[in-house]
Design goal:
homodimer, 398 residues, alpha/beta, Aspartate Aminotransferase, domain 1, Aspartate Aminotransferase, domain 2, 7-stranded mixed sheet, 3-stranded antiparallel sheet, 13 helices
């Protein structure tokens, strides 16, 4: 029997999915499980997008252009221009989800053995894409005591070596919900310019900014047009995670041209997803206002409820729909498993994502979990109540 | 400006797409271009699949399981069992097109620097996936004089080194249309067993076998269950190229488990595509009979028409919908470009794919082109007439 590859062995299992067998077991036992562990919004997809599917009237589902349908890319360019990001349809590729945009960007820009710096905790799948590309993610820790603000520029600079090829930031951040300010981005600009690095800016949660805070895109950092690659997705914006449509955007023509060759090898991004994505451009502004109101209310409720529990600390993040919370537990991995295996409150329990999977520094995040507030307020209330009860009786409470 | 990666530089541009600017220019001049260059069938997608899109009634387009929806995988298992391939739903992943299945298989099994042998001419995108994975494709030449049969086993064995990790075959073959016989597959079985190699079997054209010939799947080679990985796709089977749904299938649990980790990193395969794929399992047998009749008629017409042109030789392939044809020209790349740039017959021309892009041995395939018979017979007739006229006046005729 031939042996699998070293990459096949080294690929990290998803930190979120490793608990799935326990949640399935809990459900088999008849327990209701509230899912705070995944970023699957419950918000309905816009009607205009659903109608585009129902009205599908082609006879053959054909390949599209490898960079995505031109009609779609032109509408996307107008969409971004309206959001203050000045790009045209030749400066982007439509990809199979934001996932493929990240992978193509790393493959196109970073050699095996080279390094990319990112603030930790970070989106755990960056590890998977880095393993695929044979590159190394170098973490620079952000702290819950600072509400996960950008680490001091001196700390980032300490991590730069001759192997460093870029910095990747997710803004607003998954998993912390932190929204980087314009000032923080200007600091990143300096370091990127000084060391001539790529800046990979994952902006999949751009519309999810609260309390009137404005998102500042890395695409608007002056003088580093050739350094910035923006990664985007329709998944969260329109609650269309399943269509698998993302975008890779850059003013750097060499990068677009290299990424297009990776795109040509896989022929085309999903055709039906592109139809949905193109129709979604027409989503009325009220949709976003309503979604923003809903998430603001959920966040406000949740942050308050969490901070009322003794020993818990939850920052009040300004973006996305996640927060990383400190819990009074010995080990959040054990706690998350215990919630599913051994705990129930009125035959109900909750599922959370242990934060350790979002850090790459060993031992970090041991008393933190990521919570996604993707449930209706009434469900969120029940989930918070269950969590409070669980923390009262958890044997590993500290 | 930071430099792009070596892989970004090394990625091969698609040999089919490099002529696209010339065909666009020809169309701008008002010329009708008959496309014999791409494998985009004109056959309608089955009604049962189109109806599944029109009847879409979910409110949120959610992520699916990373391995694909279980309901779909269970139906796929039944579909394969009916075709004589005995697998269950845990022995497969649903992927984003056959493309991703190939990439995941190579990534999971082959280390950077290692080698995979394949008969040439071969599907050109294997080069792209190999570059992505950092591995080397080692060609063993098959010849038009043998109608592109499997090269003698001794020739394949000569290519095996300490770096060889597997063999990849496409059956029926793209680009040659050659259908490997059971005897040829048994020869591959011997060599795979003897050297403990992976056998990657790309069977995306399984249903496209003519003259009553039967397809023999590599999955049915006895005693090498842990060596065989089947790569499949709905693209051609149901004329659904745009849905981007493929499958990676293996009895080797280590391979499935490694591939699943790559699949988890990219979250899920396209959701709408899976709905279409699942519905397509119910395609009535008459659909396939009709499609087979249509392609048989096209092939018969085309092979005869080509062989009537002086200096042309076209084998009569038993599978897929391609053929590699020998032309009396100095350089098929120049000829293909000339057809688009400088030739017209009643304001019409044809686009063909130069075969050089399907060989990796330099200089091979210089007087060959791949022709896809994906046009209606009446269009195919016009295309053949135009090609015959072109060959009369092409300045580089030999």
């Amino acid at each position: 029997m031939p042996s699998i590859s070293d990459k096949g062995k080294a690929m990290p299992a998803s930190p979120i999915r490793k608990l799935v067998p326990y949640s399935e077991e809990a459900k088999r036992k008849g327990r209701k499980v509230y899912h705070l562990n995944i970023g699957q919004p419950d918000i309905p997809t816009p009607e205009v997008a659903l109608n585009a599917i129902r009205n599908f009237n082609l006879k053959v589902i054909e390949y599209s252009h490898s960079a995505g349908n031109e009609t779609y890319r032109r509408k996307l360019a107008a969409f971004y221009q309206k959001a203050g990001i000045n790009i045209d349809h030749t400066e982007m590729l439509v990809t199979t989800g934001g996932s493929e945009a990240i992978l193509f960007a790393l493959m196109s820009c970073v050699n095996p053995g080279e390094e990319v710096i990112t603030p930790e905790p970070f989106y755990a799948n960056y590890n998977g894409f880095a393993t695929t590309a044979g590159i190394k993610i170098v973490p620079v820790t952000s702290y819950i005591t600072e509400d996960f603000a950008l680490p001091p520029i001196a700390e980032i600079e300490k991590k730069i070596t001759s192997k460093t090829k870029g910095i990747i930031v997710c803004n607003p951040n998954n998993p912390t919900g932190y929204l980087y300010s314009k000032e923080e981005l200007l600091q990143l600009r300096e370091i990127v310019k000084k060391h001539d690095l790529f800046l990979f800016s994952d902006e999949a949660y751009r519309e999810f900014c609260y309390d009137g805070a404005e998102h500042f895109s890395a695409m608007n950092l002056e003088g580093i047009d050739n350094n910035v690659i923006m990664l985007d997705s329709v998944s969260k914006r329109y609650s269309e995670c399943g269509v698998r449509i993302g975008m890779l955007i850059s003013k750097n023509k060499e990068v677009i041209s290299a990424a297009l060759k990776f795109a040509q090898a896989r022929l085309s991004p999903p055709g039906l997803g592109q139809i949905v994505g193109e129709a979604s451009i027409e989503t009325p502004p009220e949709y976003f206002k309503e979604v923003n109101r809903e998430y603001t209310a959920r966040r406000n409720y949740m942050v308050e409820a969490l901070n009322k529990i003794q020993g818990v600390y939850c920052p009040k993040p300004k973006g996305a729909f996640y927060t990383v919370v400190k819990l009074p537990v010995d080990d959040a991995d054990k706690f998350a498993q215990w919630l599913l295996e051994d705990f129930e409150f009125n035959n109900q329990t909750v599922m959370v994502a242990p934060a350790s999977g979002f850090y790459s520094t060993p031992g970090y995040g041991k008393n933190e979990v990521r919570i996604a507030y993707v449930l209706k307020i009434e469900d969120l209330k029940k989930a918070m109540e269950i969590l409070a009860e669980a923390l009262k009786v958890y044997p590993g409470r500290v």
